[in-house]
Amino acid sequence: MRAETAKRSQQVHDVSCGRALRERLLGEAGSPDPVPALVVSKIAAEIQGHCGHRLLKCRRLAMGWTVAQAVAAAHQLVKNAGLPKVGLSERSWKDWEAGVLPSPDYQDLLCRLFATHPVSLGFAHDYSPQGPDPLWNGTAVGATLPAGQALARGTSPDDGAEVAETKRRDAVKLAGLAFAAPAAAAQILEAAAAEALEFTRQAEATSLGSGTLDHLDLAVTEFNHAYSLKPPKAVFDAVLDYRRKVDRFLKDDHTHRQERDLRAFAGWLSELLAWLAHDLGNARTGLAFATDAFVQGQQAGHGQLCAWATDAAASINLYKQRPAKAREAALKGLAEAPAGHPLTVRLHAQAARAAAADGDAEGFTTAFQAAQDAYRHLPPRSPRRFGMDVAPLADYALTSYPATSFIWLGQAEQARQHAEHALATYEAAPAASRSPSREAIARIDLALAHAQLGDPDDAVALGHQALDSARVVDSVRSRAGDLTTFLTRRYPRQAAVEGLRERLAAVDAARPALPAATPSGA
Question: Which of 63, 104, 145, 453 is most buried by its number of CB atoms within 10 A?
């Protein structure tokens, strides 16, 4: 560890040098399979001393892994050991190898993965005196003395009882208790008890009030309920204020368990801010908060949160006409989403919609079939998110997403059928779960289908109905712009078309501005 923390003056070698060292040392050891932990440790030490990499990277190279293989091995370990699912990515691993300190939970996972301790991975310092320990033979704590030393003391290796007693006496001497009077020994033990209490107090030290986490849980729940019911600008301001509060809490004293909870709340707030920024027409801010939500989810070990964050990123990229990025985000989310969860249906449908936007009919069909398969395998009881049933999100994805997709693929009749089904589904929903913006988009999809089928009058009427919505967010304005552009090109001399275009221009001019805000990087 001293070498790790000393000034790194030597030139760091290319990884190919470390791989060559590994092959040579394995050959010298007889090419064992599997490679024993002690051999891996020796190879890592050789790579560190010769190549100058940080200790975590040396361990990985000693195992013969790429970063991707190391991440895969960690996920497999989590699965095999029945540990809580983690959101570990290649990016996080590379950050750790560059010197970023993992959270305590990830440090524990890495120590399990490499069957070692934090010091050997560069996560902690070793302050023990230099030189050999008289009770240490290099293999394990409490190991017997080497045979040569045992014979020098007049005992044989077979005399286990005497050796054990000698070790016990030596250990007591090292602790300083053998030379203390009984009263002094009792005093030492009393002081140790007080010290143990202080260790516990520090582990539980926190600046959070007893009800802070409960309050945050309630606030996040209320914000999610308000999302479709209140103007996005007002909700954005309130949620951003809470996101800043959580950032301050993360900078104060808290326990490790509280940090996980705080990062999860930070992620949920950022996920909601991503959607709100999207609704207000600022893709850059929306994507920044979606990224923050994903990172906070990773730090909290909350894979489902990571998946919801990618769902937001997929939609934002799609509306900014970046279908490849949208598809990439959806696939990234599928790697994190829980099996048998409606979110998997939605993410497959997102990938299908992105493929359609890219003109990839075959890709759309494949991804949409995957969404339908995932839907058929959903459990009878749907999970809830902040008290709300998430099953309708899967239903909506299987109705509205294909309607939009068939519009982009030029299959007007298919688009009309799915848009009518989507609109009927939205209108039949209970009042508390109605989504005015989704209904508006379904009407625009239906309008575009009518326009493609040669019925401009119905298309214009549906366009006005969409703009009558109580929640004309940016996604609605964007799709309405697609409608007016198509109608103007196809029916350039119709006054009704011009009237719809002028109305949309007035709606655009009146939209609220988004305050300058990006994630704080907590």
Answer: 145
Region 39-59: mean pLDDT is: 89
342/181 Cα distance (integer angstroms): 69
What amino acid is encoded at 79 in this protein?
K
Q: Among the listed ranges 316-320, 365-369, 466-470, which one has the minimum average pLDDT value?
A: 466-470
* Alpha carbons 480 and 470: distance in angstroms, whole number: 15
The per-residue pLDDT for range 193-244, each reduced to its tens digit, is: 656 655 555 555 566 766 888 888 988 999 988 888 888 888 999 999 999 9
Cα gap 132→511, rounded to integer Å: 73
Mean pLDDT across the chain: 82
Relative orientation angle of helices 474-490 and 436-452, to the nearest 10 degrees: 10
β-partners of residue 389 are 384
- Read off the pLDDT of residues 434-452 as tens digits, 9 standing for 90 and up: 788 889 999 999 999 999 9
**Is 144 in contact with 163 (CB distance < 8 Å)?**
yes
- Res. 187: pLDDT tops 90: no
Cα–Cα distance, 327 to 330 (Å, whole number): 5
SS3 string, 17-66, reads: HHHHHHHHHHHHCCCCCCCCHHHHHHHHHHHHHHHCCCHHHHHHHHHCCC
Q: Using CA atoms, how far apart are residues 359 and 365, in angstroms rounded to an integer?
A: 12
Query: Six-digit token pair at 514?
Result: 């988004």
Is the pTM of the predicted complex or chain greater than 0.85?
no
d(CA 177, CA 183): 11
- Cβ partners under 8 Å of residue 67, min gap 6: 60, 90, 93, 94, 97
Conformational region of residue 176, where left means phi above 0, alpha means psi within -120 to 50, and beta covers everything else? left
pLDDT at 283 over 80: yes
Contacts (Cβ under 8 Å, ≥6 apart) of 442: 400, 403, 419, 422, 423, 426
Query: What's the distance, CA 347 to chain centroid?
Result: 15
Question: Scanning the structure block, which residue is given the tokens 């993992």?
Answer: 102
All residues at 6 or more sequence positions from 463 whose CB lies less than 8 Å from its CB, including other chains: 443, 444, 447, 480, 483, 484, 487, 500
Distance CA 136, CA 130 (A): 13
What is the per-residue pLDDT for 9? Answer: 45
| Contact predicate 263/240, CB 8 Å | no
Both tokens of 335, joined, read 């790697």
